[in-house]
## 1
Amino acid sequence: MSDITTTLKTKGIRPTAMRSLVYQELAKQDTAVALTDIELAFTKADRTTLYRTVKTFEENGIVHQIDDGTGISKYALCEPGCNCEIENDLHLHFHCSNCDKTVCLTEHKIPQISLPDGYVAEDVNLVVKGICSDCSGS
């Protein structure tokens, strides 16, 4: 059994050929990608199938969605052991205003935030915007 098949089964996802291919495509990326980027990689695939695959991955903790302020949702694979829990797994994202790429900074965790009584956090998203190391020449 391949690593991808094992990962999908562990998360309760039936490992179809398309799901395995989409997972493989996401694993090749070093930046978060929009659904349109995934569609471009699979020009012969049905858009609805790709959308449902990404949503299934998101609902089962394979990918997380990133709102980087561009108005286009981006997706990136979760790191191993991630359960997308607000208390444990949230990290910074960086959006380059020059090349428009968004990257996960998984080594930089978002600190826990104490909310007033009665408030319940459902999602936390922290995006730092600026110039990435590729664009800045550093």
Note: The helical segments are 3-10, 17-28, 35-41, 47-59, 133-136.
## 2
Amino acid sequence: MGLALAFGVPAAHAAPLTVVVDNVCSAKGEIDLTVFVASNWLSDRTDVSDRQLPARVGSVTFHFDLPPGTYAAAAFHDANDNGKFDKNFVGWPLEGFGFSNDAHVKFFHPPSFAAARFTLPPEGATETLRLDYWSKC
């Protein structure tokens, strides 16, 4: 089933969204990107807008067809390819991560949906997320 149909919108009303994940430091593992709506911000209930692509030094580009609206995106570099975002025992990120709208983590708390949101107009859009690495790549 296409993404537009999964959202209950005919494909003719879908808008193209391109998300470029920039500052990828190595080709190890994969880049995991999820596009969220406000009601599921940073939750695990987003299977229709979660994608993984092989990591490449520099940038990795994702493509979606989604209904026009307001979204936010989060990405991480799953360098060890274990399917999860790794942190140490105090919560320090061990893998690169980033959010749309250049939203930043504050005091180990992810940004709000409002800080990371962007608008997808009917004609489509391109968003860029820059990965931050708090530990070595």
Note: The longest strand covers residues 15-24.
## 3
Amino acid sequence: MVNLEEVRSQVKQALEGLLDVAGLQPGQIFVLGCSSSEITGARIGKSPNMEVGRVVVSTILPVLQEKGVFLAVQGCEHINRALVIEEKAALRYELEIVTVIPALHAGGAASVAAFDLMEKPVMVEHVLAHAGMDIGDTFIGMHLRHVAVPVRLPIKYIGSAHLTLARTRPKLIGGERAIYRREPDGK
């Protein structure tokens, strides 16, 4: 059996480290992909665990809410990786709301927990998040902005699940003559 307090501690450590690096601003989106099965040592999608999903989401959500950052929780492939997000975020980013409610075996434990814990949750098909946490190799990349940058921290696992973290940055466009930052003297 997985130690829920250890999971909470690992999630908190990973979240704090990622937030330090990512520099998220109020109103931005943070995406979470989470396999509670992988956390408990089972194969992804084979043994969803509501207690684990709830611990993960209940650890992340209040921290992001305090910073004014929206949490989007990716569901599993059985709902086409649709995401739970607050309605006000969906409206702000003009995200298309879809009609599905996550369930333990069609969405996963983390998305069910998010749907239960958020103030006014809705489901959307896609987001372009500014940073994200992938617990258990759920492949959140489709929900990150186009230039995702891996974030390396000492913590590599949540329970038995592999942990991947990412932040995003604006695209660098142009060429060798392009200027990406204005120098202090204005040149």
Note: The chain has a mean pLDDT of 95.
